[in-house]
Amino acid sequence: MKEKVVVGMSGGVDSSVAAYLLLEQGYEVIGATMQIWQSDDACTIEKEGGCCGQSAVDDARRVAAVLGIPYYVMDFRDVFRRQVMDYFTAEYLRGRTPNPCIACNRFVKWEAMLQRSLAIGADYIATGHYARVERLPGGRFSVRSSVTAQKDQTYALYNLTQFQLSHTLMPVGEYCKEEIREIARKAGLPVFSKPDSQEICFIPDDDYAGFLEREAGEQAPGPGRFEWKDGTYLGPSKGITHYTVGQRKGLGIAMGRPVFVTKIIPETNTVVLGESGDVFGSTLRCSRLNFMALDPAEFPVGAEREALGKIRYSHRGAPCRIRRTGEDEITAYFADPVRAVTPGQAAVFYEGEHILCGGTICAEG
Fold first, then answer.
1. What does the pLDDT read at residue 39?
2. Global confidence as pTM
3. Whole-angstrom Cα distance, residue 29 to residue 7?
């Protein structure tokens, strides 16, 4: 009897080829797109971009028809609103810079969609991520880097649980992007040349500040203040939701030389500025921990080990020593200073190609 897999289809080439590859491998494949857009208005839905808008549904349905597989749209609007959009807004109001894709992966794609898929008799879910899932000799599951560093997406998957990983397939991780497009072309998939989506799916116009002002309403911080790193008042700012640690461009203040955001203080709606060297740090603390290849029982409070640490999606990673400084806290000490340690972003720690563990950055060490 064939094992059944539900493939999360975004309408893009990667998830489309994931469905094709699994079909070729002998799985019973079902295609599904997550409905996450919040409006029922047809005009509004048509404008929604990203991986789960109306155009994504149309493209995914066309691919499913070519492959001859069942296709469904699964409604996850409530959980997406609660776990992603509301979280995104709340974090910015706290002076942090969140990663909504990490939240969506954990709580929508790999919690809500997995549970729905298991309920209809599926054995696995699958996505088009450039990553691989492996069961290690000790029995634990971990996400392993894809064969192509250029497209590797493991960073955004660090928060998946052992249960979720045990029911996950990621066939695209064995290929580079050019190979995936060629597979799609040869298979006759109509999305083989479709460009990748870059923006956050629920902010298709990239106007973060406008979205946050609408979502926060009366809680929006409004205009704030710029201070120099020594506490000197420099002038008015647009408010903390317009800035992130490490930012240089678009500050809206003339200093006669390049200056950078070094800190955000939500209590006083203050953005602290400094020199380029002030945005580098050698330590960080992270919480909301999730363990993958590393068994938490084998890494008790006080334990240390070497790792490669990534502090944002685009970061290539840097050697560091990690120490478990609390039940829900790891402190990382980098061999060389890293740029813009940003509260709210994820710190993900690797050994070789496998994710050891990770957490949300709460502060510089």
1. 61
2. 0.92
3. 7
